[in-house]
Design brief:
Elements lengths: L4 E6 L3 H12 L3 E6 L11 H16 L3 E10 L5 E3 L2 H7 L1 H8 L7 E11 L4 E12 L15 E3 L11 H7 L1 H16 L2
Parallel strand pairs: 1-2, 1-3
Antiparallel strand pairs: 3-4, 3-5, 5-6, 6-7
Helix pairs in contact: 1-6, 3-4
């Protein structure tokens, strides 16, 4: 178990920070929120986007940090919106995705997260993925983003119907964070 470890998380999304901070408690890691907008390149890979964003953020704050990027990948839509998830959420939202999915039987989808850790010696990316399906309606008022239309595998509820502790049991973000912690425990020892 780690003692008195603090890591900066750069994000303008308080919900993402809250999820990561809750996950970090399990490992006795304290996360410090740095509320900066993420500078994103346009790319087809979450890993490439988050790596570039983390490098830019590191050059601004000159301190070890983690940065996160997530995407919803819908099988029947050729994995759209993928790395464009945030833009799609802001423009057409949950209703827009459900409208596009009308009449489509294949509801398979997955959420993926890429977390990048950077310091003065290393830049490393960790990923997590959760399979599931798109619901037929918006369900639940918890969570954020596309949570109210994503049902994780093995569940009948959407992420939007789960509290934070329940969501973190399945979460793509949680899986990526656990991979980061495994690395970090050996890296700092």
């Amino acid at each position: 178990m780690l003692k008195n470890v603090e890591i900066s998380v750069v994000t303008s999304n308080e919900n993402k920070f809250r999820e990561l901070a809750e996950l970090a408690k399990e490992y006795n890691i304290k996360l410090r929120w740095i509320n900066l907008p993420k500078v994103e390149i346009q790319a087809d890979s979450l890993e490439e986007i988050v790596r570039n964003s983390a490098i830019i953020a590191y050059n601004m704050i000159k301190s070890p940090l983690i940065m996160e990027d997530s995407g919803l990948f819908i099988e029947a839509l050729n994995n759209f919106p993928g790395p464009y998830t945030n833009y799609v959420r802001r423009t057409i939202g949950l209703e827009g995705i459900l409208k596009i999915m009308q009449g489509i039987e294949n509801r398979n989808a997955y959420f993926m997260t890429a977390i990048c850790y950077i310091d003065d010696k290393i830049v490393k990316v960790f990923t997590g993925k959760i399979n599931g399906r798109i619901s037929y309606s918006i369900r639940g008022d918890k969570g954020f983003g596309f949570d109210p239309i994503f049902i994780p595998e093995g569940e009948d509820r959407t992420f939007g119907e789960m509290n934070l502790e329940e969501k973190n049991k399945y979460s793509h973000r949680g899986k990526a964070f656990k991979e980061f912690v495994k690395f970090y425990l050996t890296y700092i020892s």
